[in-house]
Amino acid sequence: MNLLDHEIKNALRREEPPADFTARVLARIQSAPARKPDWREGLRNFSRLHALQWATAAALCVAIAIGMVAYGRHQRTLADRAVGEKARAQVMLALHIASARLNIALREVQRADPPRRVRAVPKSGRKMEHL
């Protein structure tokens, strides 16, 4: 056992109280007048006892309010995303329809006017003719 352990053991060893200890404590209790606390002291004690409970309740209310605000923002984000995805689907459908109509028009033009052959280099020094 080291020195620190020995000092701790001596400091915490059990000691018997003096023989008149009980009599002195009882005499002191009987001699001290019982003081009735006034209403202000009772109110202070009540508030001290319940201050932790009130602080806990207030913190809980603040946490609930923050949670409700965060949840509302999350719901708005989800709603905005759904609106955006719906708009995207509508744009994609419109592009698909426009592409299909353009393809129909292109086929009609190609059928009505067969493609002409255009030479890359004119035979003579003339300018190239346009269609």
Task: Give the gist of this structure.
With 131 residues, the protein is an all-alpha fold. The protein has helices spanning 3-11, 21-31, 39-112.
Describe this structure in words.
The protein is mainly α. The longest helix has 74 residues. It is elongated and about 140 Å long.
Protein traits:
single chain, 131 residues, mainly alpha, 3 helices, 0% strand
- Span from first to last CA? 111 Å
- Most strands sheet: none
Mean pLDDT level: 84
What is the overall number of helices?
Answer: 3
As a whole number of angstroms, the C-alpha radius of gyration is 48 Å
Strand content: under 5%
Helix and strand element order = HHH
Number of strands: 0
SSE diagram, text form:
Blueprint: H1 3-11, H2 21-31, H3 39-112
